[in-house]
Amino acid sequence: MSEVDLSAHIPEVKLITDLRDIKAANLHWNSKVILGDCLKVLKQMPEGIVDLIVTSPPYADSRKKTYGGITPDKYVAWFLPISQELKRVLKPGGTFILNIKEKVVNGQRHNYVIKLILEMQNQGWLWTEEYIWHKKNSFPGKWSNRFRDSWERCIQFNKEQDIEEEVPDDWEHCIQFNKQKKFNMYQESVMVPMGDWAKSRLKNLSDTDKKRDNSRVESGFGKNISNWLERKMAYPTNVLHLSTECGNKNHSAAFPKSLPSWFIKLFTEQGNTVLDPFLGSGTTCVAAKELGRNYIGIELQKEYCELAVANIEKAKLNLQLTTLTQSMSSKDQDKVNADYEAYYEYLIQHVLTPFYDKRLEKLSKLKLKSILKRKNPYLFKAKNIEFAQDFVKGIVDAFLSSQEETIFGNLLEEFAIYISEILYGGFKSKLNSVDLEFKRNGIYYIVGIKSGIYWGNSDQINRMKENFKKAKQTLRQQGVTDEIIAVNGCMYGKDRNPLKEDADSGKSYYKYAGQEFWNFISEDENLYQEIIVPIDQEAKNKDELFKNTYQAKVNEMTFEFMQYFMNNGQIDWVKLVNYVSKKGDVKLEPSPKQMMLDLEEETSDLEDTLDFADVLDSEEA
Ligand SMILES: C[S@@+](CC[C@H](N)C(=O)[O-])C[C@H]1O[C@@H](n2cnc3c(N)ncnc32)[C@H](O)[C@@H]1O
């Protein structure tokens, strides 16, 4: 049985404080945090069980106070026995990523990292690549002879292997491929969105450059770039722009999870094993766990070990939660999507379309003389309206908005009934004050639907309660044996105390508003937001026709208003009030003294003035 399979059957023992526990119980090394000196622990580990090592060892001297350190001069000698063991436990195709940075000693960068690389090469490691971790948000600072440190090395080592790449026929390429050693790498897993890179890159090449690249050197460079133009994803560079932010306040040198995550994705597959011999707060193991890899962490300090275990535990729980939600939601999502499609369709066909049709119809039939009598002239005077068009617009808008509220409210109410119908077999009720009846989970609901929460005064509310009580009695007589609950549903707004209790329990009811109402109707907390989408889309489609009709109507009515209610360019308020309120019949005559526009041309002082088009013409000439 493979290592991956084994770990699935063995209960996870996280913190190993005594290596004998692993051996005595014949436990697997995978998914363990081990307290101890990594050199000693590594020596106990079997050969070739690790696919990737990602680690950030204590930097020379730098954090002596928190977790000890090694002086720069002794660093190489200290590390080499550890790297020897790391090489032994690493699988042949595995990779070792060493996050390190040379310290400044006596005004210059110490050379222990360079020496270490050379010594590790002597040890049989290949120095395959070097990645730069650019710390996007490093602390600002300046020293007399250098700027703030904003990057660290992530050095890639691989094991020398006998297997070499196949040698192609082409001699030129031979040299390159001969040197390339084989190790596991999954480049596609770290691809990044292409953005506008290829386009701007190509724009910067002159045509001659492109031609030269294609013809003289035959590198195919121009051609290769154009290949990338249509692609959505590109391979990243070897500079990783990551913030130092790690959300881990309990370790002074934790790296961000995105750092090990990136290398884990690049060099391993699910089920592989990742080792961090200087585990600290457990970041590498957390990243491995989240990405479905096994992990082994070694840490010298007990408190960090415990911190690491806690962090991995947290990651594990999060993972379980995410998997659970994902599997639940993916199952439910299909049904929700199908429901939403039906809702969208309904909203467009049966709410938005008739709403706009009815609005248009009302608008087209609007007559100045009839709406004048419905609106309060004193109010418009109190608002100091002086222009005929403002007045007409004001009364048209006021008329429309009172109509719209009713039309839209009724249509949306039908939508709520439709949802209840398709989900629970609900139907439109004939009982007084009740619009909808449906049964769910053994409860029979009677629902009176209103637009907003302030829909009625106390008399109206009392009437509704009376009617709810009577409705319950009627339903009992009709043979409904389930518990009956009355609900006043409001399509928008909120109500913090939904239960409205009455001394007479038959009159008690629930008031659900806004999100709670739509959730009550559909058991979907998001429905109240979702219905905005089709409303928004369809309104954009239909609004133009409405706007045109509206403008024409306002212009037409303004013209009519001016004929009857304007005197010497002023609104004749007395005539208006008489028309609306004077007892008896008031015969409406056009105003005698109407100011007429004189459209006859006169010779103007401005006749020599050039208009803008003339200016352009003369400039072109
Ligand atoms: C730079 S920190 C690693 C931080 C880690 N990458 C993280 O994200 O939390 C180095 C860690 O190595 C631990 N350490 C130092 N010497 C060790 C040794 N010989 N064996 C195991 N751990 C050691 C230190 O206690 C420290 O927590």
TrEMBL record:
SUPFAM superfamilies: Restriction endonuclease-like, S-adenosyl-L-methionine-dependent methyltransferases. GO terms for biological process: DNA restriction-modification system; methylation. It is an enzyme of class 2 (transferase). It comes from the Bacteria. GO terms for molecular function: DNA binding; N-methyltransferase activity; site-specific DNA-methyltransferase (adenine-specific) activity; site-specific DNA-methyltransferase (cytosine-N4-specific) activity. The keyword Methyltransferase applies. InterPro entries: DNA_methylase_N4/N6, MeTrfase_CN4_CS, RE_EcoO109IR, Restrct_endonuc-II-like, RM_Methyltransferase, SAM-dependent_MTases_sf. CDD domains: AdoMet_MTases, PDDEXK_nuclease. GO terms for cellular component: cytoplasm. It catalyses: a 2'-deoxycytidine in DNA + S-adenosyl-L-methionine = an N(4)-methyl-2'-deoxycytidine in DNA + S-adenosyl-L-homocysteine + H(+). PANTHER family: RNA METHYLASE-RELATED (PTHR13370), TRNA (GUANINE(10)-N2)-METHYLTRANSFERASE HOMOLOG (PTHR13370:SF3). This is site-specific DNA-methyltransferase (cytosine-N(4)-specific).
